[in-house]
Amino acid sequence: MAMAINYVSDINPSKESWKIIVRVTHLWHVPSYNNPSELHSIELVLMDEKGDKIQASIKRSMIMTYRNLLNKGESYTLMTFGVGLNSGDYKPTSHAYKINFLNITKVEVNRDASIPLYGFKFVTYGDIISNRLDDKILA
Fold first, then answer.
1. Is 40 helix (H, G, I), strand (E, B) or coil?
2. Within 10 A of 22 (CB to CB), how many other CB atoms are there?
3. Rounded CA separation 93/96 (Å)
4. Residue 19 pairs with which residues in a beta bridge?
5. Which one of 22, 100, 127, 137 is most buried, counting C-beta atoms within 10 A?
6. 89, 65 in Cβ contact below 8 A?
7. Are strands 97-100 and 106-109 parallel, antiparallel or unpaired?
8. From first to last of its 139 residues, what are the pLDDT tens digits of the chain?
9. Which residues, including other chains, have CB under 8 Å from residue 93's CB and lie 6 or more apart?
10. pTM recorded for the entire structure
11. Is 86 exposed, middle or buried (0-12, 13-18, 19+ CB in 10 A)?
């Protein structure tokens, strides 16, 4: 039986077998603190067809496996990944959790995905000047 497709909003650490279809809306390389010429991780923001976003991390030990598989703007089916708490003072998304790529994570290009190219969430000018927005969430 085929694994059911989940939405980003459903992701939490309660189970290990998630399958999502997402678009990479942002992708950046984080250099090593002690040696800026080395990569510490690759970070991504992933968005599903409902416009929900989640951060994903590829740690140094798996960079060579996934570096050439993922591109900004492309859509993918992801399966078998870790889920951890999205902590820190500044977060790329408001999702409570983030995805951690594992050595068994499956990545497949999904050209049929109906996911918007951009995940803009526009806010009113009044919300901006009133400081009602969380300025610790980046996307």
1. strand
2. 26
3. 8
4. 79
5. 22
6. no
7. unpaired
8. 577 899 999 999 998 889 999 999 999 999 998 998 899 999 999 999 999 999 999 999 999 999 899 999 999 999 999 999 998 888 889 899 999 999 999 999 998 878 988 778 887 888 878 877 766 677 5
9. 45, 53, 54, 55, 86, 137, 138, 139
10. 0.89
11. middle
Which tokens in the block code for residue 17? Answer: 């077998």
Under a CB-based contact definition with an 8 Å cutoff, are residues 100 and 82 in contact? yes
SS3 58: strand
The two three-digit tokens of residue 25, written as one number: 């809306």
Side-chain half-sphere of 111: how many Cα atoms within 13 Å?
0
Residue 64 DSSP code: H
Q: How far apart are CA 48 and CA 23, in angstroms?
A: 6
Integer angstrom CA distances of residue 18 from 28, 41, 83, 130, 139: 24, 22, 9, 39, 23
User: Residue 34: what residue type?
Assistant: N
Nearest to 96 by CA among 104, 107, 106, 84: 84
Give the whole-angstrom CA distance, residue 118 versus residue 96.
21
